Amino acid sequence: MSYSYDNYPPEKKKDLFQAIIPPSIDSIPQSLQEIREHSDSANYVFEYKNYKNQTCFWVRRKDPDESKDGKKSFHTHSYCSKTKTWKPKSWTKDRPLFREHRLANNEKPVIVFEGERTTQEAEELFPGHICVSWSGGSNAVFKTNFKYLINREVTLWCDNDEAGLKAMTEVGITLLDNKITENIKIIGLNKDLPQSWDVEDGIPKTAQGVTKEGLFETRAEFIPDAKVEKIIRDEWHGREAKEKLENLSEEYTYIRQTDEFFEMRSHDFVRLKSLDHDWAHIFKTKTGEGDLSRRLLSDKRTKKVLNYIKLAGRETGVINVSKKDHPLIQPGRYINIYNHHHIEAIEGDVSLFVNFYKMLLGEAHWKVMEQVIAFMVQCPGKKMRWAPIIVSDEGGGKGLLGEAMGRILGQLNVATNVGYKDVITTHSTIIRDKILVILNEVVVHQVHAEKKEVTNALKSLITDDFIIINEKHKAIVNHLNTTNIWVYSNKKDCLHLDPGSRRYYVIHVKWKTEDFEKWDKEGKFDELFKWLENKGANYLYDYFKNKVKIEDKKLFQGRAPRTPDLEQMILDNRHPTIKKLDDRYIDEQEPFSIEWVGFISKNQLITWTEANFKGHAPDNEIEQWLKSKAIPWK
């Protein structure tokens, strides 16, 4: 294959091996069965059974004369759940003890040895005890589960060397830390015996008077050496950190643009210092300062991307983005932060819901809103270039519609109760994370100019392809805007709309508070919410995805359908000066009295309004008013 910057160096294929207890009809590998039946090495094939007497895996020992390198070696055979065959692989954790099955229904004290052959030899010497060992040697104690030694009298008998003593110390600490047993004794090193001597070996002639039975009587209470214990615990900590780092390198993705990590599990952005502090109990420097971020950045397994992006049509996680995804985006590697929502489409009766909103909004308005919802369901993450504004008295079912959208599109993708200040402020991230934001109870009480400024800020969120995300103490991000906006309000003049406004589909609900209170007493809203919770959302998803046909997708990319309610909102949002001029013009009052000759210039009208009306007369709006009323001079 050819390599690009995105796929080089190539990732190593993950080992798909997963060990399981083999089926009873295949309880031993064929090669080991042949060895047991026809070879002198039968005593070097060890079966590991668990407490329930189930075969778990096998270990074959090869002595130096059987190995090519002249060293003793061990070869494990485990059963793979994927291939349903035996593989030369070892269990990575929770290994049973060798002879663990003999612990069942047997209260005898236990002796722990290092090695299977040693255990077999000891079984003949100490029939009053259960002799066990673990697999993998002195460096693999942590891979075995010792839980079935619970409340036993345990003697630890190590090989006669420092490595053996350290391994048995690790066993003892494991028993204590996990509250398995406190009744622990240990047989220490013996200077009269050769290095690495174990019970399988004979007693040398130089060790006069020493017997294996006598050595057993030298056992003493297990008190771990402090230095050895520190070494063991440091190794545990290092191993835990290594394993955790491997998992965290999959969990966290580094974003270059903002110099932070994205956490897949929580779908949250995490600053480097916060990450260091959060994991300082595992990842820290010699001075105790957290350093997980440094370790992740230096780990080649950690994924690194240019920036974050929200693309509903692509898989969540690290993706390669091209011009096909969006013509204006810079190609490269991104983290897709879109939350895929999985809801089952179930065909069902939606008439309760649909008929309610036909009644509430009017059939013509509901038809448009039905197209809007169908567009968002069938084309998730696609940007509309206009926004619905629904104006009604409080308690009119707007919240129910928002709740339905959250259930259909996913609660993590919809913000249903957002103040307009929450989206127009410099540091807002709501637009970054959601595909639908419903601005609730929108009303701007400021003076005319400020109200116009707020409306223009909202307009840019509705129409612009990119928005600026400027979080505190972070780099500024030019973010692809795939978020749609809906507006709810109780006031007909909630935003400043003028005759040129074309980005809002305005609906004025005719029903009043007393109607809503009556419906509430009749149980209409409770019935709708219960229906929504009882598979109603699934029915709606099927309806908008499979039943409603989008008549023209271009509708959502141009002007909003113009409504009489929009014209009324435009009238309600006139500047006070313009309202007074309109009234005077209609009533033929000064300066448009009956004596007026019909000619007036912009400057004359501005001068007159400044002299006769309180407050500043907006020059540009007076000019627009004149243009709408006058016959142009030619």
**Fraction of helical residues:** 25-40%
- How much of the sequence lies in strands comes to 15-25%
Total helix count? 19
Strand pairing plus helix content: what structural class?
alpha/beta
Number of strands: 24
* Average residue-wise pLDDT: 89
From the alpha-carbon coordinates, what is the Rg to the nearest angstrom? 39 Å
> CA-to-CA gap between the ends?
73 Å
- Uncertain segments of ≥5 residues (pLDDT<50)? 1-5
- Sheet with the most strands? 5 strands, antiparallel
Q: What global shape is seen?
A: elongated
Oligomer: single chain
Report on this model:
It is a single chain. By secondary structure, the chain is of the alpha/beta class. The strands form 6 sheets. Strands 1, 2, 3, 4 and 5 form a 5-stranded antiparallel beta sheet that branches. Strands 7-6-8-9-10 form a 5-stranded mixed beta sheet, with helices on both faces. Strands 19-20-23-18-24 form a 5-stranded parallel beta sheet. A hairpin with a 4-residue loop joins strand 12 and strand 13 (268-271). The two termini are 73 Å apart.
Show the helix and strand layout.
Blueprint: E1 19-20, H1 30-38, E2 45-49, E3 55-62, E4 73-80, E5 86-87, E6 110-113, H2 116-125, E7 130-133, E8 154-157, H3 162-177, E9 184-187, H4 212-216, E10 220-221, H5 226-251, E11 252-255, E12 260-263, E13 268-271, H6 272-278, H7 292-298, E14 303-305, E15 307-309, E16 317-321, E17 332-336, H8 351-361, H9 363-378, E18 387-391, H10 398-409, E19 414-418, H11 420-424, H12 430-433, E20 436-439, H13 448-463, E21 466-469, E22 477-480, E23 484-489, E24 504-508, H14 513-522, H15 524-547, H16 564-572, H17 576-587, H18 602-612, H19 619-629
Parallel strand pairs: 6-7, 6-8, 8-9, 11-14, 15-17, 18-23, 18-24, 19-20, 20-23
Antiparallel strand pairs: 1-4, 2-3, 3-4, 4-5, 9-10, 11-12, 12-13, 16-17, 21-22
Helix pairs in contact: 8-9, 9-15, 10-15
